[in-house]
Amino acid sequence: MPERFRLDFVGFVEPRPGVPPPPSHIASLVTTMRARGVRIIVRQPHEPEKNIAYLAQRTNATVVMLAASVGALPGTDDYVPLFDANVTALSRAASVP
């Protein structure tokens, strides 16, 4: 998905889906995010909030909730509204100073 939409993901909170990351992985993400000037953290509704909130606090990044599939968020009951919601969320986050 990132290549399709020209998004540059620098890492993932859970290196393996569903497996909590070790503290060393989170520390490495903080370092990478600071070095690369990451301003946005993408989160999906099913992902745990704890580590993402920690990363946002440590890096001053904005957390954006995106829907990966139709119906994942309110108002995304069809394919076009799904894209509209995701584009709107990313646009708003990118415009935050």
CATH level 1 name: Alpha Beta
Shape: globular
Helix content: 40-55%
If classified by CATH, what would the architecture be? 3-Layer(aba) Sandwich
CATH T-level topology: Rossmann fold
- The largest beta-sheet arranges its strands as 1-2
DSSP, total strands: 2
| Succession of helices and strands | HEHEH
Give the strand content.
5-15%
Low-confidence stretches: none
DSSP summary: helix tally = 3
The end-to-end span amounts to 26 Å
Fourth CATH level, the homologous superfamily: Nitrogenase molybdenum iron protein domain
Short description:
With 97 residues, the protein is mostly helical. The protein has helices at 23-36, 50-59, 79-94, and strands at residues 40-43, 62-65. Helix content is 41%, strand content 8%.
Polypeptide structure, described:
The protein has 97 residues and is mainly α. It has one domain (23-94): Nitrogenase molybdenum iron protein domain (Rossmann fold, 3-Layer(aba) Sandwich), CATH 3.40.50.1980. The protein is built from 3 helices and 2 strands; from the N terminus they run αβαβα. The protein has helices at residues 23-36, 50-59, 79-94; strands at residues 40-43, 62-65. Strands 1-2 form a two-stranded parallel sheet. Helix 1 packs parallel to helix 2 (50-59). The longest helix is centred in the last third of the chain and has 16 residues, at 79-94. The protein starts with 22 loop residues before the first helix and ends with a helix. The mean pLDDT is 90.
Show the helix and strand layout.
Layout: H1 23-36, E1 40-43, H2 50-59, E2 62-65, H3 79-94
Parallel strand pairs: 1-2
